């Protein structure tokens, strides 16, 4: 299995409220890296983070199908897995060369992946897995689901730690360039949530364009990233650089 943990992979931009397909990003040679393992006429599966939002699922399929073509990634089929077909897809998961775990609300996607039994199904999977934002976060053995929706940061019953897919021990915090300046429920996300939570479980904060590649239990970080541990924030890698974790 080749696992890419990303904050964002590009593939589209917004114009007048519409999402327009474009090539995948190649910051830190991400697209070049994917192409090393991509097989001709790959069959790809998009696993939804919003399984009840069929309109979003259909839109993602259209956008990424075109984005892969624009990226010169050969594709024979693009399927979407959401609430409509999760049982059917679970029975044919090994037919896919590439599985993409899309971004969205971490706990919502986590519940869906658990319902599918995806953790067990992926234990013998040999293809490419691409996590995007929430999808990357749910790849961990123990998922750190940092509060992100209104009310979650002050909800005493909100569960920050969930059982994940156990594809890696690494926890990531995506879109760090944005969240370090944001607030939620009157709290500063970085100073009042991320840093205190890192005393329980450390994680890597990735800016968009950075990613972690995992193969054979070896993990390499590409691009600008930060190590958040014991309440401290440390920059550990720069753009166009990489380090072995």
UniProtKB/TrEMBL annotation:
Name the record gives this protein: Dipeptidase E
Pfam families xrefs: Peptidase_S51 (PF03575)
Alphabetically ordered keywords of this record: Hydrolase, Protease, Serine protease
Domain of life: Bacteria
InterPro entries tied to this protein: Class_I_gatase-like, Peptidase_S51
Any one Gene Ontology molecular-function term assigned to this protein's record: serine-type peptidase activity
Keyword Transferase: no
